[in-house]
Design brief:
Elements (H helix, E strand, L loop, with lengths): L1 H23 L6 H26 L1
């Protein structure tokens, strides 16, 4: 349960920070950018969940 909560928080933080970075480098908005943000944030959230499960066990 803890991994679900922390990975959800990590997903939203990562997606926000990745979006801010892409705004700073003037990457044009579009479907590809949105998909990239989602994929990277999902990978980070998955990594956080794996680490939390590993530490908790």
């Amino acid at each position: 349960m803890l991994s679900l909560i922390l990975s959800t928080i990590a997903f939203f933080i990562a997606s926000y920070l990745i979006k801010q970075y892409m705004d700073d480098v003037n990457m044009p908005k579009g479907f590809t950018r949105s998909t990239l943000i989602f994929s990277l944030a999902l990978a980070i959230a998955y990594g956080v969940a794996v680490v939390v499960d590993w530490v908790a066990s």
